[in-house]
Amino acid sequence: MKLIKFSTLLLLASALTFTGSGCKHKTPGVTTLPNGGISGAGNNQLGNAGTMQPGEGVQMGGGEAATFNPDDMAQDRAALASQTIYFDYDSSSIKPVEHMKLEAVASALKSDSSAKLLVEGHCDERGTEEYNRSLGERRALSAREELAIMGVDAGRIATRSYGEDRSADPGHSESAWKKNRRDEFVLLHAR
Asked: How do residues 9-48 score in pLDDT, each as one tens digit?
């Protein structure tokens, strides 16, 4: 009799363990960012065309530095596309070899005082969605901080994290992941 009760309890405990550890699911919610910013991370809905709509599935933050909405401005993605910086695995530290690219971005902003900047942080597919959103934001904030040190007003720089949502390379190898761990710079102008 004791063996049957023990077996039943063991079976019940196993069932509860497997039930509680299902597949990764996306939970909408609010993510607290460094510097006290708050963002709606986890909202990963796609529009009818299968592309992300402005404000969907992204995490914006950076404290109170940016005083504008990048979605209300004309975006020039080509102007600074060659200045994309790359990060090591699970790191938001800017590598010394990437500083020349940041200097070029700072120079472009200093030469056009009306321009603003959007720094988009990206990650590879490893890690949870929430972690990658946070890491992407830390990467974007690192670039903003370095640009501020170089003399660019931080109020002209907005940050946004796409986490793993916008891969530069859809592969599942180290060479693909290296391309996905990045910050992209988008030059902004008033419409």
From this structure: 555 555 544 444 444 433 333 333 344 443 333 333 233 3
- What is the b/e burial string over 142-169, where b = at least 16 CB atoms within 10 angstroms of the residue's CB? bbbebbbeeebebebbbbbbbbbbbbbe
Per-residue pLDDT tens over the stretch 69-124: 999 999 999 999 999 999 999 999 999 999 999 999 999 999 999 999 999 999 99
* Structural domain that includes position 61: 24-189
The Cα–Cα gap between 169 and 171 comes to 6
**Residue 123's CATH number:** 3.30.1330.60
Number of structural domains in the chain: 1
Q: Is 82 helix (H, G, I), strand (E, B) or coil?
A: helix
